[in-house]
Specification:
- This protein is mainly alpha-helical.
- It folds into two domains: 121 residues, no CATH class; 113 residues, no CATH class.
- The longest helix has 29 residues.
- It has a two-stranded antiparallel sheet.
- α1 packs across α2, α1 packs across α4 and α4 runs antiparallel to α5.
- The chain contains ten helices and two strands.
- It comes from Podospora anserina (strain S / ATCC MYA-4624 / DSM 980 / FGSC 10383) (Pleurage anserina).
Length: 246
């Protein structure tokens, strides 16, 4: 079996498939989010020379992309699933500042940075999925508790916060799924191990973006979701996210 810098062919194919699957879920659930990124990506590539890296960071269209924040990282990684040798995707990925434990030194992997990013992203996405499921299961266990703060006072929640802003797409996907399940009783959760009633994703989003919780107000879950969904698809970057003060 041919080996690519520590990634055998089977693992490489699984990694690419997983990356594309996440992209397709985002495209299906949040098409405006994906299309806005793609439009900005195309604008950037029209303004630069792929053979001259000195131009890549100096154009306004690059600033427009990075202003979207780490939440677009899954879409950038998808560009590498399409072309593992796309150096512009590697450049944008590193400029977005992914979580330090997954930030790569491309000088050490200069022959295969795209594949290394794909592998790191695959491992990270799996860790995020497991952490989301762990928190959801915890929320189910304490679902009869009278205080809403108990949902965010646990190790499972802190694990998710520590992943940083780049997990926002993963959180939004599960948030959208849980809202649908809440509204449509016959709907089935798409995430294994995550059941109905786990609707405190907005607290996690608020802390990921603003570094604090909402303050414990009483919310209409669907209305709060609509605000977060509108922001996520609006292309305004993390600075335009809903903000609540306790």
């Amino acid at each position: 079996m041919e080996v690519y810098y520590g990634i055998n062919t089977e693992n490489r194919d699984n990694t690419i498939w997983s990356t594309r699957r996440l992209y397709l879920r985002l495209l299906e659930t949040f098409p405006k989010f994906v299309h806005d990124f793609q439009a900005k990506w195309n604008d950037w590539h029209q303004a630069i020379s792929a053979d001259d890296s000195s131009t890549w960071s100096s154009v306004p269209s690059f600033t427009a992309l990075t202003a979207l924040g780490p939440q677009i990282i899954p879409l950038v990684v998808y560009q590498l699933a399409l072309d593992q040798n796309d150096k512009t995707a590697v450049h944008l990925y590193l400029a977005l500042g992914p979580d330090s434990s997954y930030l790569l030194d491309v000088l050490e992997n200069e022959n295969s940075p795209g594949l290394q990013i794909l592998r790191a992203s695959f491992d990270r996405n799996r860790a995020v999925r497991n952490a989301l499921a762990d928190w959801a299961e915890y929320c189910e266990r304490v679902s009869r508790h009278s205080s809403s703060s108990i949902y965010t006072e646990c190790a499972e929640y802190e694990t998710l916060v520590n992943f940083g802003e780049s997990i926002i797409p993963h959180v939004m996907l599960q948030y959208a799924n849980d809202i649908k399940v809440q509204i449509e009783p016959n709907a089935v959760s798409r995430a294994s191990g995550i059941g109905r009633g786990v609707l405190f994703w907005y607290e996690l989003l608020h802390e990921l973006v603003w570094g604090c919780k909402t303050g414990g107000q009483t919310w209409v879950f669907e209305d709060v979701y609509n605000r977060w969904e509108g922001w996520f698809q609006g292309g305004s970057g993390v600075g335009g996210a809903p903000r609540y003060r306790g």
